[in-house]
Amino acid sequence: MTFSPDKLNKVQEIIARYPEERQKSALLPVLHLAQEEFGGWLSVEAMDYVASLLQLEPIEVYEVATFYSMYNLKPVGKYVFEVCQTGPCMLRGSDDIIAYIQQKLGINVGETTPDGLFTLKVVECLGACGYAPMMQLGKFYREHLTKEKIDAIIEECIQNAAINN
Ligand code: FES
């Protein structure tokens, strides 16, 4: 398991942003690169590889990767719904939104649909409380969620997957 030459250059660029001997500071962005490069999730092998690149103990990488919800520790679907379940979103109906997604996709939180298209996760506050209830989908936030919006988002993902196949 190794990064492509392009990604390795990017890793060097990231490390260079920090003082010498402080390459641990590069851990978060390098884990993002690893997740992107190795199929959308971080296997133990991928985390060990990142540890070796940054000259860290593997446990230092596991600690970080298991702490943040944006790192996936098992394979995920092409579209990952990360629904915020913290107070403000909960008060605005995130429980109903989560239940609706579960029912609509036929999966529970933490699961992926058998066709590999969708994964449902619940996460803590994503800093968009004023737009509650909300979720992250890829690099974008989807806000003021309703059941109708969820239907539209799922349909949009299915269409995009069909176009990209
Ligand atoms: S509580 Fe959901 S974004 Fe803050």
From TrEMBL:
Belongs to the complex I 24 kDa subunit family. It holds the Pfam family 2Fe-2S_thioredx. GO terms for molecular function: 2 iron, 2 sulfur cluster binding; active transmembrane transporter activity; inorganic cation transmembrane transporter activity; metal ion binding; monoatomic cation transmembrane transporter activity; NADH dehydrogenase activity. One of its GO terms (cellular component) is organelle membrane. Keywords: 2Fe-2S, Iron, Iron-sulfur, Metal-binding, NAD, Translocase. Binds 1 [2Fe-2S] cluster. The keyword Translocase applies. It comes from Ilyomonas limi. GO terms for biological process: inorganic cation transmembrane transport. Its cofactor is [2Fe-2S] cluster. [2Fe-2S] cluster binds at residues 84, 89, 125, 129. InterPro entries: NuoE-like, NuoE_dom, NuoE_N, Thioredoxin-like_sf. This is NAD(P)H-dependent oxidoreductase subunit E.
